[in-house]
Amino acid sequence: MSLGQQLAPHLPFLRRYGRALTGSQAQGDRYVRATLEAIVAAPEEFPRDVDPRLGLYRTFQAIWNSANFDETADEAPAEDQEAVARARLSRMTPLSRQALLLTAMEGFTPEDAAYLIEVEPAEVDALVAEALAEIEKQTRARVLIIEDEPIIAMDIESIVRDLGHEVTGVAVTRDEAVALAMEDRPGLVLADIQLADDSSGIDAVKDILAEFNVPVIFITAFPERLLTGERPEPTFLITKPFQRSTVKAAISQALFFDESTVPA
What we know:
Rossmann fold; 12 helices; globular; phosphoprotein
């Protein structure tokens, strides 16, 4: 099996990590493309002493650490360069959050996460604890849940409330979701893809975003369908069935990049 064939199944999930890490589909996907270009340019440098998935993420981390590029920086007037740089640096995902995303969202062991971010294994637990402590201090959000499965909706609501956030409502259809959002504007939306009346959570979110901007996390049993990199796709994505830690990490990172919860 060629290296490309070995890496292909892991690319959708690397896109998920890149998007969560940068808070942007465009930026996250650019890092993934840069990672693949680096592998194609120098396949002999790809880590062969570890699992292909681990080697892929390690190459991504190397690109992330060495080239935190920004599309708008090159186009900005000279006098704006400092402001652009400050804004970019202020939104850089700290090492602690990288450790949290790699373990809670991507499912790596602490040992593997340590290899990826190049720290000692003993440091990973401390970094994750640091990220969780930071989450506790995070500005509270008002959350709209769009989910037609009652048990799952209750579970998500419990997680959201345990994090200290307020739930503005639980919608089971597209129309209900839009109505609830217009009635009481949330600061975060958690949306399933397939809803009760065969309507789409994606369409519900599009309707909401047409009225006002709000960070969105999609929840789906088929994440690879929304992680192709070929069209506008979600920045934040949770895979069903999910762990509480995964939801917690996703909510935290979505709010980390939201203008209303992150200092300018």
